[in-house]
Write a structure and sequence with these properties.
The structure is a single chain. By secondary structure, this protein is an alpha/beta fold. It is built from 9 helices and 8 strands. It has 2 domains: 78 residues, Ribosomal Protein L15, Chain: K, domain 2; 178 residues, CRISPR-associated endonuclease Cas1, C-terminal domain (Four Helix Bundle (Hemerythrin (Met), subunit A)), CATH 1.20.120. 44% of the residues lie in helices and 12% in strands. It has a 4-stranded mixed beta sheet. The chain has a 4-stranded mixed beta sheet with strand order 4-3-2-6. It is flat and about 60 Å long. 38% of the residues are buried.
Length: 306
């Protein structure tokens, strides 16, 4: 009788590498290993269990076995366009905590709690309390003004010509160097943040500042870290005028994520801003039916299915 391997156990997000981009290859599981195979049949092993997310660019194909393994180990697969700017679809290895989803929705639907969450996001992002007696719309306006000034400051710091945040997602090459670098950098941050949101058991679409988008909550959380991680990276690469700016940005972002220990901070920050709403995670109704087979204590994060 063949010995049975122990079940796969997801690694917590904080212990993973942030993001990896793949293009022009077939993603598959061969001889028990997660690999990308190029047109010449050359295999390159991918440590899928230790990644927060895989960004799949044009030219990649994914087998059923690869999708299953990525789901089991809690690695988010994201199908993106050129340079990772356009998101077409994503797998969902997390989001499996109904209590967290209900808690998030309850906060978003309560006007008072939502304002408290937004004020906390502002405080964490800018290192100071939000102005008193301001609505969410007013806070958003204040935030937008500060963001524009920060872009100008970074552009001046790195000697980059800056005419504002302008880009056309349908015409990638039409943007200037700085905007292209910023788009590539924020795509990296959004991918990692989405993986963390799902791993924590929350819904990417239920936002507090951003609304109406599939990744509204991802944008809310990512914006907290944007100007300390990917924005300076983007302007630095733009100033270097690299022949492959998108690739240079990805490598620099990966290094910035590691240096800032971003993956250890996203989920705790998420919990901090949500707890500012002052509401408790709802208890299950008394007449609800508990699971017939008790859930095992997970080794990964709250939303991982493994």
């Amino acid at each position: 009788m063949q010995p049975q391997l122990p079940p796969l156990r997801p690694i917590p997000i904080k212990a993973r590498v942030s993001v990896l981009f793949l293009e022009k290859g077939n993603l598959d599981v061969l001889d028990g290993a997660f690999v990308v195979v190029d047109k010449n049949g050359v295999r390159t092993h991918v440590p899928v269990g230790g990644l927060a997310c895989l960004m799949l660019e044009p030219g990649t194909r994914v087998s059923h076995a690869a999708a299953v393994l990525a789901s089991r180990v809690g690695c988010l697969l994201i199908w993106v366009g050129e340079a990772g700017v356009r998101l077409y679809a994503s797998g969902q290895p997390g989001g499996a905590r109904a209590d967290r989803l209900l808690y998030q929705a309850r906060l978003a639907l309560d006007d008072s709690a939502r304002l408290k969450v937004v004020r906390k996001m502002y405080a964490v992002r800018f290192g100071e309390e939000a102005p008193a007696h301001r609505s969410i719309e007013q806070l958003r306006s204040i935030e937008g003004s500060r963001v524009k000034n920060l872009y100008k400051l970074f552009a001046n710091q790195y000697g980059v010509t800056w005419h504002g945040r302008k880009y056309d997602p349908d015409e990638w090459g039409s943007g200037d160097m700085a905007n292209r670098c910023l788009s590539a950098a924020t795509a990296c941050l959004y991918g990692v943040t989405e993986a963390a949101v799902l791993a924590a058991g929350y819904a990417p679409a239920v936002g507090f500042i951003h609304t109406g988008k599939p990744l509204s909550f991802v944008y809310d959380i990512a914006d907290i870290f944007k100007f300390e991680t990917v924005v300076p990276v983007a302007f630095k690469v733009a100033a270097q005028k690299s022949g492959e700016p998108e690739r240079a940005v990805r490598i620099a972002c990966r290094d910035a994520f590691r240096k800032s220990q971003l993956l250890t901070r996203i989920i705790p920050t998420m919990e901090t801003v949500l707890s500012a709403g002052g509401l408790k995670c709802p208890d299950p109704p008394e007449d609800s039916v508990p699971p017939a087979i008790p859930n095992k204590e997970p080794s990964g994060d709250a939303g991982h299915r493994g």
